[in-house]
Amino acid sequence: MRWIGLDIGRDFAHAAVVGEGRGAARSLGRFRMGEEFRAFAATLGPHDVVALEASTNTWTLAELLGRHAGRVVVSNPLRTRAIADAKRKTDDIDAATLAELLAADYLPEVWQPDPATRRLRRLVAHRASLVRDRTACRNRATAILARRLLRAPVTDPFGVRGRAWLVDLELPVDERLTLDSTLRLEALLRAEVEAADRAIAEVVVDDPRVHQLLTIPGIGLVTAAGLLAVIGDIRRFPRPAKLVSYLGLDPRVRQSGDRPAMRGHISRAGQAHARGLLTEAAHATTRAPGPLASFHERLRHRRGAGIAIVATARKLAVVVWHLLTRDEGFRFASAERTAIKRRGLERLAGRLPERARSSQRGATGSSHDRGRARLRGGSDPLEPALRQAIDRTRRDDTSPSTP
User: Fold this and answer.
1) Does 402 score more than 60 pLDDT?
2) How many other C-beta atoms lie within 10 A of the C-beta of residue 152?
3) Chain segment 5-27, per-residue pLDDT in tens
4) Are 361 and 378 in contact (CB under 8 A)?
5) Domain extents for the chain?
6) CA–CA separation, 150 vs 133, rounded Å?
7) Strand 12-18 to strand 26-32: parallel, antiparallel, or no bridges (unpaired)?
8) Which of 31, 73, 95, 292 is least surrounded by CB atoms within 10 angstroms?
9) Which of 239, 256, 245 is nearest to 325 (CA)?
């Protein structure tokens, strides 16, 4: 059996091997990425174990090596301190260190996702990058308004009425050029985000795990898909605390000697995007009646709003673990709200026809729609009927009484 370490670079891969004698690693040379690396992979056999550190193209290389080698180990670079803290650090030395740690069975290994999970991860990462670019465009437009001491008269400056107001603004030539360019880019990115949402919906529409997560208040398609992309197989987390730690929502602990353990802020380890999605979901959860909202409200009075939101995000992670492990929905879910989420998912995936949008907001006449219309500067849809009733009452009061 051979233990082979690979140090992967952009143009070359350096290889080192430890043989049956378990002595020091010897160099196998370097291979140019492409045909030379494929030729090297073809020389591997079922008795070879290959190790490489996680990087941008790790899973493509791991799949290629796995066709020939007996086993492929992907190392966690954050925990390979023998490489990160080495005084002498070259590509050949890094490859030799990987091979020696692999032969000694002392290499921290990361979980390798299946092809479906890798595809979902790529889609989620693509959408996240589009959202970041769209946010940058909106920030540029907001900066222009701040420089001109202007404030939008609507709640959403990038909605239909907000964009019309931005287009009609009288600005200096340079500011007008920048704002028009920003609005065009924002419209393009908004369309791309919607296309990414449709692509994600088509992938997960038949996944029962997504339907289970949609029963949780505050969790929609984007959050559910993002969590599943990061979690993958829930069975690799034997208890909820493991998932909480993986998402970086567990507190830091410092303890030495006889002193009591000191707990600090959350560790922020792991994937920041999934942690951010859970935090956003926690904000939405607090607006839906239920045990999660009650938990947040109790903690907010004792510890403050910031700690309460993070603790609610952690509670959401625990709920997610239980639902995925037990293969069931949220016990306190709103059936009506869950049905709306599922119809929206099927509509995005093309299973249902697009819903016709009303030409006037507040057409339902509910108190929420009327309040929203007034906040956005619109008119109350029931105002004409109300005025007619008031006029009739006034006429009855002013008419002469009959003897």
Assistant:
1) no
2) 17
3) 999 998 999 999 998 877 889 99
4) yes
5) 2-103, 116-200, 210-253+262-347, 367-394
6) 23
7) antiparallel
8) 31
9) 239
Average pLDDT, the chain: 86
Q: Measured between alpha carbons, how far apart are the two ends of the chain, in Å? A: 115
Residue 388: the pLDDT is 56
The CATH T-level fold of domain 2-103 is Nucleotidyltransferase; domain 5 (3.30.420)
Q: What is the token pair recorded at 88?
A: 């002498």
Contacts 24+ apart (CB under 8 A), 173-181: 175/144, 175/147, 175/148, 178/140, 178/144, 179/141, 179/144
Q: Could you tell me which residues come within 8 angstroms of residue 29 by beta carbon, excluding any fewer than 6 positions away? A: 14, 15
- Name the token pair of 99: 């091979």
Query: pLDDT digits over 56-114, tens only?
Result: 889 999 999 999 999 999 998 877 766 666 677 888 888 998 998 999 888 888 899 99
Residues 6+ apart with CB under 8 A from 371: none
Joined together, the tokens standing for residue 160 give: 């239909």
Residue at 135: amino acid letter: T
